[in-house]
Amino acid sequence: MKIATIIVRVLIGALLLFASIAYFFKLFPEPEITGDLKTFNEGLAASGYLMNLVKGLELLCGIAFISGKFVRLANLVLLPISVNIVLVHLNLDPANIGAGAFLFLGNLFLIYRHWGSYKELFKA
Q1: Structure confidence at residue 46 (pLDDT)
Q2: Where are the alpha helices (DSSP H) in 68-124?
Q3: I want to staple 66 with a disulfide (CB 3.0 to 4.6 A). Which of 13, 31, 36, 86 is the partner?
Q4: Is residue 50 pLDDT above 90, yes or no?
Q5: Under DSSP, is residue 26 helix (H, G, I), strand (E, B) or coil?
């Protein structure tokens, strides 16, 4: 189980690093978005949603996962981001939910593996 934990942690870290670096350095042209997802993205842009902050957090979490340092904290920071990614794709773009689902399920797996560190958060 320890090897599976390391594999999932490194794969999530690589995914987060790739996505955030590609975003900041504009490595790839943005894909053409249509329909409700396009309307949603335009609404986010018009609202002043801080995508740079989200991608910055993804970058920091990716570094944490790759290095193996602060993984428990990175899990907590990443959880609402991964939930948001899954819900957006589930409702607006179900065909492209793969990477988001992997991120969310991997995040849950790592929280499960480090559950002893989180138990105190749920005590009254």
Answers
A1: 87
A2: 71-92, 98-113, 115-118
A3: 13
A4: no
A5: coil
**Residue boundaries of the structural domains of the chain:** 2-119
pLDDT at 49 (0 to 100) = 82
Query: Which tokens go with 15?
Result: 């995914």
Are the beta carbons of 54 and 61 closer than 8 angstroms?
A: no
Copy the structure tokens of residue 85.
Answer: 């990614």
pLDDT of residue 48 exceeding 90, the answer is: no
Contact 25, 59 (CB under 8 A): no
Counting beta carbons within 10 angstroms of the beta carbon of residue 96, is it exposed (0 to 12), middle (13 to 18) or buried (19 or more)? exposed
- Nearest 5°: phi and psi at 42? -65, -40
Q: How far is CA 109 from CA 53, 58, 80, 90, 116, in A?
A: 25, 18, 15, 20, 13
Length of the chain: 124
What is the C-alpha to C-alpha distance for residues 50 and 69, in angstroms, rounded to an integer? 26
Q: Judging by beta carbons within 10 Å of its beta carbon (0-12, 13-18, 19+), is residue 19 exposed, middle or buried?
A: middle
